Every structure is written in structure tokens, then in C-alpha cells.
Amino acid sequence: MTIIITSLLFAAILGALLALIIGAAAKAFAVEIDPRIETVTDMLPGANCGGCGYAGCADFAKAIVGETVPPTQCPVSSPEDARRIAEYLGITAEEKEKAVAVVRCSGGRSTTLRSPYNGITDCRSAVVVAGGAKGCDYGCIGFGSCARACPFGAIEIRDGLAVVHPDLCVGCGKCVDTCPKNLIVLVPAFVDVHVYCNSPEKGPVKRKVCKTACIACRKCVKAADSAEQMNIKGFLVETNYSNPPLPDLVEKAGCPTTALRQASRHAAGEYEGVSK
Amino acid sequence: MSDTEPKAVQLPDATRLVVSNSPHIRGNDSISKVMAEVLIALLPAALAAVWFFGLHALRVMALCTLGCIAVEEIWNKCAKRPSSWKDGSAVVTGLLLAMNLSAGAPWWICILGSLLAIGLGKQIFGGLGYNPFNPALVARVALLIGFPQLMTSWVAPQPGAWTALDAMTGATPLGASGAAVATLKDLFIGNVGGCLGETSALALLIGGAFLIVRKRIKWQVPAAFIATVALISGLVHHVNPALTPPAIYHVFAGGLMIGAFFMATDMVTSPMTVNGALIFGVGCGLITSVIRIWGGYPEGVSFSILFMNALTPLIDRYTIGKPFGYIRIKKEAAQ
Amino acid sequence: MSDKPRKFKGGVHPNDSKALSAGKPVQDAPLLDKYTVIIHQNIGAPPELVVKKGDVVKKGDLLAKASGFVSVPLHAPTSGTVSLIDKCPGPACVSVPAVTITADGEDAWGDCLEPIPDWPNTDPAILKQRVADAGIVGMGGAGFPSHVKLSPTKPIDTLILNGAECEPYLTADHRLMLEQAEDVVLGAAILARILGLKTAVIGVEENKPDAIAELKKLAGKYNVTVQSLHVNYPQGAEKQLIYALTGREVPIGGLPMDVGCVVQNVASAAAVAEAVLNGHPSIERITTVTGEPLVNPGNWRFRLGTPVSKAIEMAGGVSVQPAKLLLGGPMMGFAQNTLDVTVMKNTSGILLIPVETASQYTAEPCIRCGRCVEACPMDILPATISQAVENERFDWAAQLNVLACIECGSCSYICPSHRPLNQQFKRAKAEIMAARRKQQKK
């Protein structure tokens, strides 16, 4: 009996002592936290994707409260969410249009020349060996570094090619930095027509290694409603994102290599095997 | 060469040329080769066990090995991982586990041990290469704590008698009256009661020497381990002979030999650097001696190795050597 | 120096496979009708093109002039017409600019550089300028401009000629030392004069006893010493060679001149002798074409711009499909995916690796056996760095001195788990350097 009482007493005294020390320490070393940070964190999506450039939503909230960044920098929040945060903090938030990522390459395994590769299946590691072992020096390596970086699962690797699903992409831009070939760009989400090629080489050189390269034949430029809708840069055509063409341009132009694609239909895999 | 008449010269097919990083050739070493050599090194000890404990030893070894392979494969199936028993690591774990059991161990102890070794000791951390603790020792210690009676009742050695099975009490040569339990010669040859693998110091030494010659283990680990145990037990015996038997008993009795040569040297769970290996061995020796001499258990090898396993990442981190050309940089910076 | 072979710490002993071509004397490759010369053949700035399409050039004429100090000129490998200036496959599987010369078949020399027969009494600066004008680079593999190494900013007391040729399969330097021993030794003496030294030491691995004997015969005449080296890869790596011969450690991130040494390849030395005595620029080199799949492996003297397909044809083609085509040796060479790549100043070997011995990388886990730690000649911890890279912790990798890695591949060679360590380190180095450049810009 005495043993039980002693041990209970001992435990109780020990507990009380520790509680006292912890309590004193909490008072002595207390860190002031702006309560608004917590509120703002709650108003953010909580995905901790890092798309804003900060280490998670709480860190971003700290930056917003410190007024160094606007709440619209969160690529996931809707404009309403951002406005609500801005209202709560009493700051003004500029409207930001939604962006999506586009991988400017259509050279899948079946359409591009590729050598058998043996090594780390990661684009940034593969690129130090023979530039990714592709026939085209500029195209998608297809080992999915971008897909792994995407916090929203919006990038699929299909037939050795990274394909963005525009409906899942929130435009956070995390993939942009991971691509060693700098293939990924953020574009306004409402534009659906893109040129899926990034090679500045001459047409015949490109065609030799890739069936779906843009050969700058200008068909799309001519078919567009106005000439400014598609820009020609060297041997490559580009959508003019400040004056974009309508989605029906793809049908009208009849791109011979299918480098000109609608993002939504590209994601659905509708162009596979179409190239002549 | 005139006999090679204008035959069309054949060029390689460029589209089938594999692109990869250098080096483009490599040594013919592989994980299964490493494991095979460990198994070869364990062979003398296994044969000694069969000689002293008969077919019962064989039964325990077979049960543990097959058990480990089975657990590994079932786990791989469930985790949807490719089959991996062929790399031999599960076989090694199984055999080492058997070496840590008594010849009289019931079948369910062997199976439970396999489950603990492969499941709790290895696969739960992600499989080969990721386990922080030696799997066979995890199983042994778990069984020792769970079934202390079963795990410390040995079978008397009966050289050459194939089927006899005489239980004997748990007197150990590591007790204060060590010399009364077994002669030194019996200890060295293995003619004493104990686990399958820890009895014959001779067989273990042969296996250990093989591994050291083949550079599969770092000699620093067993050397530091055994030397530390010998030193401490020798000192304590010198000061107080009633407390513990002489150093030579400590070295040849119990699990020290198998622990030092086969358990502590497990590549995955011991330090990679040479200095780290020394620290690791000394640490194992210290803890073993303390447990053996003053602790509640007669044997402390397993606990000491597991404890040092936990320290391995730390040891590795603090024993990183200076790279080639490093010292000069420092000197120059000082100038 | 004693006759005992010198060695360094670490390293591996791959099967050297040199017997395939070691006994084959160097043959002059027949004149081709077309040469595609890659413009950027050196480390440093690419030379500036001075010819245009349609120009007629003579053998040895300037195609491109050096565009800075760390740059070398490029010369025409034969006489003919510049027919095309376009991109062609480069040694790293990425297209690079190149000049195509359609040969006129005459192979006539143009106005060469003036020979300097009286080199022992010539101003070293003139000799150095000749090395630069002849476009000589490190022909062992790196392609670093030789004249830059000859312009040290720190005091030099030792000139080392690298004849280790530690890469398996390759025998180009071996044949060179055997057949042109005089050129090598002469080159060594000229290089020593440029550096203001009395003597030079030629380091040769002891698996080439005939070459060592040949060099030793001439060594006394030109006051050079020949030192045999232990057979151990990477014995020919600059830092390891210096350590083996002098016991000095080149600091990490430092250069051989930091420890008073200059290292030149033996082939570069022979090219220096050729440039000084005959006035011929660097337009050809000895290259080993070898590998088990080849019908007739051997050593050839190729002009720059010879396509690999032609070289393989000269070696009788292949009897079976090889797994890999490499430029350079099997330990550090570059895998190619086309036969159109051409011979450059630093192409020491064209190697076909059979399917059986080609290394296959797998994702087997590290079992922490520590063999890579033993093998690493730079004394870093490949296994730990690999872990850091796998977790994309490049800061940690940098702390573990991944930048000291010389990419010799010993760790990948020895690894029982067949892990692609070397590739991980290459990536880590690239990422760390990129991050540093970014920081500097800020």
C-alpha cells in the first residue's frame, strides 16, 4: 500500500513541478503572433502547394499580412476568396486572370525519334546525359519531373509526353521551373489554341526527328481571323496570347503536322495518331 | 586479310544504341553475390550447429529461412512490389535468426520470429537498405522479451547424435561460476548449450575471416567490439573475480562471436566510414560488457548492437572524412 | 625517383580489354571525300569562323580563329571546298555548328606555320604562341587549350606528361608512345622549355612495358624521366596522377598549378612537336576504334571531321549489334545515338560495347556496403551524396563536397546495387552551379 501511495505522490509532485517549469517557460519565451495570420491562413485553400512561392499557406498568410504580397498571388484561390482576404485586411487586391500551364511539345514516343535510354528516369537527371536522348534537342523528355512537381495531379505522362489537363491545372507554375528544357509556359486559361512545338530549327531538320513539329507552313496564320492572332518567330509559330484566335482555328487551318492543337482536346488524347 | 572478300560491311543500327551515363561497364558485383558470400561464411557455423544439436538444428534453420522468404514474398504481394527473395537478403536474415534460436525452439517461435524479422525489422521501413535495425536481432530481442523462458532454455549439445533432444537449464558460462559450466576447449569448439549459432567460436571465426578476406565486412567492427569486451571484462575480473569470469570466457561464450562478425557488421545498419566502424565496435563492446557484468540479462550482445544501430546515422554524419585536397584549402585560406 | 610504380588512394580495377587493339599498329585512315568538322572542339570559348560557304581551302588553312585567351583556332583537315556550314550531331547528342569540307582529293598543304627547327634556342614565348596557333588542346579527353595550361600564374616546378591511359579498351596513347616515342619526348622537352623547366616526367601505367622501354631509350637524350605507374583506374585523372608522381594534393576547386604542376597529355605533346618542328597544326589524331562487336578493331590516324560511321567501316564493321557506341573510354566516354558524329581533337576512342558487358542501371536500394567510399579517389562519400541527391537536397550534397567529384565513375562501377551514382552527381553539380550563378546574378 505504501508503495502505491509513494509512487502516486512522486508522480504527482513530478507532474506539478514539470507543469510549473513549462508554464514559466511559455510565459518567458512567448512569441507574439499577429492573430490575423491565423485567420488569413484559414481563408486560404490549405493545399500547401507552394504555388505562391512560399512554404505553404501559413507562410504565405504571414507574407500577406505583412503586406509584401497581394492575396491574389495564391494561384488556387478564386478571385472571390482573394477579395475576401483583402477586405478582411483592409487592402486592395488587383484582379488576376486565371492561368494554365502548357507544355509546348507534342512529340510523344510514337511520333519523335528517341534513343533507348538507361538511367535515372527523371528529366533533370536525364538531361545531363545526352540531353535526354531524344532526336529533338528541344522537346519533352517525358520522365515526368513536372508531373511529380504538380501538387494538383494536372500533368499526365502519356506516350512519353507531358500533357497538361487544363481543367485540373490552377496555374501555380510549379512545373515551369522543373522543366529542364523550359518547355512549360503559363498562359491565360481562356485561350484554347496553342502551338505544341518549341524547336527553333528549320522545318526539314525538325521533321526528320519529329512527326508533329511545327514547320512554320503558315496555314494557321492565313486561316486566322486576323494576321496578328498567330505570330511567326523564326521557324516557329506562336499563339498571340494578347489577341488569341478562336478554338475553331484548329479545324480551319488544318495543320499538316497537328502541332496546332486545342488544349482541351490535346488533354483528351484526340490528336494521337492523326499526324500524317 | 585476303580471305575477307568484299562482303558488305555491317554498321550498327543507330536507333538501337542505348544512351546512358558513364561508366558504361561495371564490376560484376551484385546484391545477391554479397548475400551469397555471407551465406557461405555462415556455413561452418551452420554445420557445427547440426553436428552439436542434430537434425533439430536443421529443422529450426529450415523453418526460419523458409519463414522469412514466405513473409518477404507475402509482403511484396500485398505492397505490390516485385518479388525480392532472390536477392538473398531474406535467406540471410532467416539463417541469422535461426542462429539466434535454440535447437529446441518450437515451430511457431520460428515462424513468429520470421514475421518479426522481415515484417517489423525490415519491410515496414521500406525493405532492404532502409531498415535502421538488424532484422534478425529485432526478432530475437522481441522474442526474448516476449518469451523469456523459452528463449533462454537451451538444449544440451550431443555431438553426432542426430535426434536426441535434452533440455537443460539456463546456466551460462557468463555467470560468475563460468569455469564450472564449460571448459575453455568446449567453449571454443562449441560443445556447450546455447543458440545454434553462438556456440562454436571456431566455426564463426572461420566464417568471419572469410568475410574479411573477401572485404564484405569491415574488420574494424569485430576487432573493436571483441577487444572492448575483452578489455573491460578482463579489468573487472582482475579487480573483482567474483563478479565475472575471465575475459577469455567473455570472448568465446555467448553471442559475442556471431554478434561481432555477422550481426554488428550488417552493411545496412552499421557505419560506412572506417572511423565510424571503430566507434561502432567500441560502443557495442561497452554496452555488451555493461549488460553482461552488471545488467539483469546474462547476455547483452543483441541489445548493444540494436542500440548502436540506432546511433549509426549519427556516427556516419560525424565521421565524414576530409576529401582529397581538403587540407590544403584550409591552409591556404588561413594564409 | 625510384623505379617502383606509383599509385594513389582508392580507385577500381576494371578488366582493361586493351588486348583487342594494343598490338595493332597505327594506320593512316584513307582520305575521305567529305569531312564535317565541329567548330567548338575545346573547353572555353568557341572559335570564330573565318570561312564561308564556297570558300576554297588548303590543308591546314584556318577555318576558325581563336575568340579569346581560352580558345583555340581550328584548321582544315584537307584541301577542298567549304560546302556546308550547318548543325551536325555533337558528342553530347546535341546538335552543334560544324563546317563541312568537300575534299578535292589533292590533300595539298596550304601556307603552313614556319617550322622552328632551332627550338632549344628560341624564345619560350614564341614557342608558346606556336602551341596556341596550332590549335592544340588536351587530347586525352577534356579538350582544354594547351597554351592556357602553359601560362601559369603560379610558380611551376614540375611538368608531367600523362601517358597513363587508364581507361579500359583505349590504346591510342600506347601506340603513340611506342611508334612516335621521339615525338613525345621531344614535345616534352619543348613544353619544359616553354615553362622554363629543365626536365619533365612522363607517367605511364606499367601495363605498357614496351612503351615505357621505348620512351626510356630516348629519355636521357632530352633529359626527361619516365615513371611507371600502378595499374589502377583513374590513374590518368590529373589530380590522381599528380598525387602518384609527386605526393601533392591539388586542392578542391584548384588547378595543378596550385601545387606547382602542369599536366599535358602525351598526344598533345606529340602534337606540339609536330607544330614546332614541321609547322603543322592540330588536324589529325590517333584514335582507337575498338570493342568486341567490331570485326577488326585497331588504331587509326584520323583527320578531324571523320564520321564515326566511316571509322567503323574501316574497322570492318560489326559482327553483332552493339549495345552502345561511345566516344572516349568506357568509364568516362559519352554514349552516342547516331553514327554521324565526327572525330574531334579529344576523341581518344570510338568504342562499341557489346550487350553482355554494357552496364544496366537499376533502382535497387543502396545496401550501404561502403564499396563506393573505398573506391572514391577523391575520398568523398558517394552513397551519402546519392541519398542527398535522391531527396533533392542539393545544399546537403554541396556540404558533402559533391563538387570535388571528378566524375571518374569508380563508384558506379563498383556498386553492387548498380545505382546510377555518377549521373546523380553530374546532376547535383549542374544544379549547384546553376543555383550559384542565380545567386550571383541577384
CATH C-level name of chain B: Mainly Alpha
CATH structural architecture of the largest domain in chain A: 2-Layer Sandwich
Radius of gyration of chain B: 24 Å
User: Structural class, from secondary structure content of chain B?
Assistant: mainly alpha
Whole-number radius of gyration of chain A?
27 Å
Strand content of chain A: 5-15%
Number of strands of chain A: 9
Q: Overall mean pLDDT score of chain A?
A: 84
Helix proportion of chain B: 55-70%
Query: What is the H/E string of chain A?
Result: HHHHEEHHEEHEEHHEEHEH
The total of beta strands of chain B comes to: 3
- Uncertain segments of chain B are none
Count of DSSP H/I helices of chain A:
11
Sequence of strands across the biggest β-sheet of chain B: 2-3
**What's the arrangement of strands in the largest beta sheet of chain A?**
1-5
The total number of structural domains of chain B is 1
Order of helices and strands of chain B: EHHHHHHEEHHHHHHHHH
Number of domains of chain A: 2
- Helix count of chain B, per DSSP? 15
Q: What do you see in this structure?
A:
The complex is a heterotrimer of chains A (276), B (335) and C (442). With 276 residues, chain A is α+β, with helices and mostly antiparallel strands. Chain A has helices spanning 2-28, 35-43, 57-65, 79-89, 123-126, 145-149, 174-178, 203-209, 219-223, 249-253, 263-267, and strands at 99-103, 117-118, 155-158, 161-164, 184-188, 193-195, 230-233, 236-239, 260-262. Chain A folds into two domains: 35-89, Electron transport complex subunit B, putative Fe-S cluster (3-methyladenine DNA Glycosylase II, Chain A, domain 3, Orthogonal Bundle), CATH 1.10.15.40; 99-267, Alpha-Beta Plaits, CATH 3.30.70.20. In chain A, helix 2 packs across helix 3 (57-65). Chain B has a single domain (31-318), classed as Ammonium transporter fold (Orthogonal Bundle), CATH 1.10.3430. Chain B is globular, with a radius of gyration of 24 Å. Chain B starts with 18 loop residues before the first strand and ends with a helix. The model of chain B has no long low-confidence stretch (mean pLDDT 85). By secondary structure, chain C is α/β, with parallel strands linked by helices. Chain C has helices at residues 19-22, 124-133, 146-149, 172-179, 181-195, 209-222, 238-246, 266-277, 308-314, 371-375, 382-390, 394-399, 410-414, 421-441; strands at residues 26-28, 34-38, 48-49, 56-57, 62-65, 74-75, 80-89, 95-103, 158-163, 200-205, 224-229, 261-265, 284-290, 298-303, 324-327, 334-336, 349-353. In chain C, helix 2 (124-133) packs across helix 5 (181-195), helix 5 crosses helix 6 and helix 5 crosses helix 8 (266-277). Chain C is globular. Classes of the chains: A alpha+beta (276), B mainly alpha (335), C alpha/beta (442).
